[in-house]
Structures are given as structure tokens and as C-alpha cells.
Design brief:
Helices cover about 35% and strands about 20% of the residues. The chain is α/β, with parallel strands linked by helices and about 500 residues long. α14 crosses α19. It is elongated, with a radius of gyration of 27 Å. The structure holds 2'-monophosphoadenosine-5'-diphosphate.
């Protein structure tokens, strides 16, 4: 189930929020602590009006909410609202004291037992535990303890490493006897647990309307992009590892592709600090293949049983697939870079090229061109690195300051650094390079789509190619490695 957490301060606005998201969600969590005080008096009517199973949650500041009341006062308010309405669930924190749940009321009024009243009304208690900083050491026994009274245990905790994420995924198997439980990994490391909530063993995942905080996903993204609620035992898991990784456009290539060919698979971003930990996760949840981005393209090499010639030459791998129990590494950056200029290369129109940058991306570009007999000159801010790559690939190198000397003599210019990328859109590392002869100008930056360099080149009648062309080409090749099918030609990718 995908559960929308309301973030509005009035019931009317919260209802509108539910309406806008209705086709993406199965249930709602009404956050009473976010409502204005005057709204609470009518909060009981909310479940009936929104017509979806609703959780009543009155969150304290220490657990990430807004309520500053004492537990006693908070529970008194919660009781009033919940017992009058048609709520399906109520969230009560695990450390709320028994004495705060048995509300005495006025002096001569009878004693109430809130938990009993809820049970009699058929409202399920979600017994929640939050840790906004880490994973507690006793996580598994904690869940077992919370489930003891027949309540639904909920743990919302914060993984800080990929190994913490492995611990969360282990809960599925270790706690499989507890059928109804809620497990949420918060923060950036937790994103994969929110998407793959079913593989964690969680009965639901929480979503917001907008992705307002790190780690949060919108209901629309969970439902339409990831189809998180359709994951089952037969779903093959793919993903991308990197650090950072959450901004990546790759899920928008692979998930629609899988859907179009009716392949029961999902592609998820995994924030990874240490590659070693990720391989543990890959074994645990049987990941079938994954993309690799900065800074792990080299780090994965020791774990691969088989690599292609390009991976060996470049010393970097961006695609890993599981073949007959072994991890195989390929490099689709290499072919993805070549795809948009394939015709010109084959027609012999590219004889010489200037490459700016000497990092990981540049290595793939230089090797791809050298293997196609293009004469390459490398320029880089740190000349020493340009020199090294040039000697390894039998290329030339040049100081960035001397670029203008090549203005009329190259057929292709490739910009491989981050210069010109959003938010530094005014930067142009090739500003001294004037396009005296129209050539092909290829900028690996994909945000913005047209960098200052590409705009300038276009004005000078050059053919321009941007980073999203390469991103899409390499993504389509990865899709082939993952699924064994060509990328569906009818999907119009506009990244
Ligand atoms: P990638 O895998 O994306 O190529 P990388 O291996 O970190 O990333 O390489 C970054 C490249 O961009 C390098 O060539 C780097 O130049 P240095 O070798 O001098 O570090 C270049 N680069 C990054 N920021 C730059 C800047 N502000 N000006 C010029 N070059 C820059």
C-alpha cells in the first residue's frame, strides 16, 4: 500500500491534497500535529470525507512532528478525535506511558482505557518507534516487542551506510512471522527501502505530495515511475549505485522500458558509501544488474568475475550484470559516447579531436576515439593528468591556455568536465576556442541541455551534441544488457 502523509494545515486543504493524489494511493495518514488548532474539533470527519483507510497520527517534535504538548494532553486530544471518527488505524509511539493512555477525565468520571476502546471499535494500533539519527542496535527485538500485544509495529529509523540498509532488508526474512509491520528507512540512504518496501517486508510505504525533504518520494513517483506497489516475489531488481545518486535520470529510462516490454522488473537508486556493502545487499535481495556512477566506477572492478576489453582499457565499469552466478562488468559510456557520432566516425569524417578533461569520463571518450583511429589531443586543468592519459593512449596533450591554437584544425571537440553544469551555467572552459571551421561540438554536461559552449558552437554553425544524447544512448545499451531486449523505440525519452 502507498500511504499519503498529509502536509496541510487545514482539513479542507488536506482533503484537496488527497483528491489530487487519489489515483496513486491506497490510504492516508492524517497528520493532526500539522493542522491548525481550530481544525482539530472537526478532524473526526476526515476519514469519511476522504473515503480511504486513514491513520490518525499526532506526532511529537522529537519524532519529527510539530506537537509540543505533554503526552497526556496529546493522547487526550487524539482519543477525542479517533473515537468519534472512522479511522482505521491510530499511531501511538512505543514509549507513551500506560498512565497517559488510561485517561481519567474529570474527578468523578469513569476511568478510560484508550487502547481497549480502540480495540473494541476495531481500530488497529500502530506502535511506532522513531530514530531520526541512526539504526538502534536492538532493531529486530524491538520490532518483536512492539508486535507482542497484537499491534502493528512501526520502525522509522535512519540508515547511515549501505550496511545499515542491508540490516533493514534482512528484516523481511528474520521477522517474516510478523505479517503486518511497517519499516521505513529515512534519509537519503533509506530511499531504496521506501521504494522496495515490499522487499523489506513493510506493509506500506509513506509518500508525500511533493518531494520536499531528502529521502521523501512523491506518491506519483512511487506509483507511476516505480510501480512500487506491484513489486512481488518474481520482480527482478535492478538499480544504480553512486554517491550522490538520487538526482539521477536513469530510473526514468529503465522503469518505463521494463514496463513497455512487460518485464516484471524495477530499477532503483541506491546511495552507496562502500561498494563492498552493496555487493552484500545485491546477494541478499538478488539484484540482477546495476548501473555504476561516480565515484564507484573503479571501486567495483575487484568484485567482477568477468570484464570486457573496454573496461580493462578504461579502468572503469558503469554496467554490472549477473551472468550464471558471476558479476560481469561492461562500459556502456564507451559505446554511448560513440552512438551519436557513429555515422561520422564510420564515414571517416572525424580524424582529429580535442578532449577537455582527464577524469573518468574523459578516459572512456579518449579510448573510444583512439580505438577508432582518431588523433586525440587532451587538455586539462591539471596538466599532469592530461600528460598521463595521453601517454597511456598514445595521444597528444596541450595546456588549457593554448586551446586557441587548435581552433581551426579539429573535427570534434568533447567537453568532459563539469564546467558549465547547473548552477554554473555562465562558465565555458573553452572560451578561448573560436570555431574557425565548423566542427562537431559534444558536451557531456546534460543539465542544462544546452551549455554556454554549445550555444556558442551552434552560432558558429557547428553540429552540437549534448550530454543527454550520450546519457540516453548509454542507458539504452544498459537496458539491453539488463533485459536482453532492445530499448522500445516508441518511448520518447526527454531527459
Ligand atoms: P568524471 O568521472 O566525471 O570525469 P572526475 O574523474 O572527477 O569526474 O574528473 C573531473 C574532470 O573535470 C577532471 O578533468 C577535472 O580537472 P582536474 O584533473 O584538474 O581536477 C575537471 N574539472 C573539474 N572541475 C573543474 C573546474 N572547475 N575547472 C576545470 N576543470 C575541472
Amino acid at each position: 500500500m502507498i500511504c499519503l502523509t498529509t502536509t496541510e494545515n487545514t482539513l479542507t486543504k488536506a482533503l484537496k491534497q488527497v483528491e489530487r493524489n487519489k489515483s496513486y494511493i491506497d490510504m492516508v495518514e492524517l497528520r493532526l500535529d500539522l493542522l491548525e488548532e481550530g481544525e482539530l474539533a472537526s478532524a473526526q470527519i476526515f476519514p469519511r470525507l476522504c473515503a480511504l483507510p486513514t491513520i490518525a497520527t499526532y506526532r511529537r517534535v522529537c519524532d519529527g512532528g510539530k506537537s509540543q504538548m505533554s503526552d497526556k494532553a496529546r493522547m487526550t486530544n487524539l482519543r477525542k478525535i479517533v473515537l468519534q471518527g472512522d479511522f482505521s488505524y491510530v499511531d501511538i509511539e512505543e514509549d507513551v506511558k500506560k498512565s497517559d493512555l488510561k485517561i481519567k477525565g474529570e474527578e468523578d468520571s469513569p476511568k478510560y482505557d484508550f487502547e481497549n476502546e480502540l480495540k473494541q471499535k476495531g481500530i488497529k494500533i500502530i506502535r511506532s518507534f522513531h530514530d531520526m539519527e541512526k539504526l538502534p542496535a536492538n532493531l529486530f527485538s524491538l520490532v518483536t516487542k512492539l508486535a507482542k500485544k497484537g499491534d502493528i509495529p512501526k520502525v522509522a529509523v535512519t540508515p547511515n551506510t549501505i550496511i545499515d540498509v542491508v540490516t533493514l532488508f534482512k528484516m523481511n526474512e528474520e521477522l517474516k512471522d510478523i505479517k503486518e509491520k511497517i519499516i521505513i528507512g529515512m534519509g537519503d540512504f533509506g530511499v531504496c527501502t521506501r521504494i522496495l518496501y515490499k522487499k523489506v517486508g513493510s506493509m506500506l510505504t509513506f509518500a508525500s505530495e511533493d518531494e520536499i525533504a531528502p529521502g521523501q518520494l512523491s506518491a506519483k513517483t512511487l506509483k507511476l515511475l516505480y510501480k512500487a506497489d506491484q513489486v512481488n516475489n518474481r520482480t527482478n531488481v535492478y538499480g544504480i549505485i553512486g554517491n550522490p545518486v538520487l538526482h539521477t535520470a536513469s530510473p526514468m529510462i529503465h522503469n518505463p522500458g521494463f514496463e513497455a516490454i512487460h518485464y516484471n522488473a524495477i530499477y532503483v537508486p541506491f546511495l552507496v558509501d562502500k561498494v563492498r556493502g552493496f555487493f552484500k545487499l545485491a546477494e541478499l535481495i538478488k539484484i540482477h544488474g546495476f548501473s555504476v556512477t561516480v565515484p564507484h566506477k573503479r571501486d567495483v572492478l575487484p568484485y567482477l568475475g568477468k570484464i570486457t576489453r573496454e573496461v580493462k582499457q578504461i579502468g572503469a565499469c558503469n554496467t554490472v550484470t549477473r551472468i550464471q552466478g558471476m558479476w560481469k562488468g561492461t562500459n556502456t559510456d564507451y559505446y554511448g559516447f560513440l552512438a551519436p557520432i557513429e555515422k561520422e566516425i564510420n564515414d571517416g569524417k572525424i580524424k582529429s579531436a580535442l578532449i577537455v578533461g582527464a577524469g573518468g569520463a574523459s578516459r572512456a571518450v579518449v579510448w573510444a576515439l583512439r580505438n577508432h583511429h582518431v588523433k586525440v589531443t587532451i587538455a586539462n586543468r591539471t596538466l599532469e593528468k592530461a600528460k598521463l592519459l595521453a601517454s597511456e593512449t598514445m595521444s597528444n596533450y596541450i595546456e588549457l591556455e593554448d586551446l586557441s591554437s587548435l581552433s581551426s584544425s579539429v573535427d570534434l571537440v568533447v567537453q568532459t568536465t563539469i564546467v558549465g553544469m547547473t548552477p554554473n551555467e555562465d562558465a565555458d572552459i573553452l572560451e578561448d576556442f573560436t570555431f574557425e571551421n565548423p566542427c562537431i561540438v559534444y558536451d557531456l554536461v546534460y543539465k542544462p541541455r544546452y551549455t554556454k559552449l554549445l550555444k556558442r558552437a551552434k552560432k558558429a554553425n557547428c553540429k552540437v551534441i549534448n550530454g543527454s544524447d550520450m546519457l540516453i544512448s548509454q542507458g539504452k545499451l544498459q537496458f539491453e544488457s539488463f533485459s536482453g531486449y532492445h530499448y522500445p523505440h516508441w518511448i520518447n525519452l526527454n531527459l
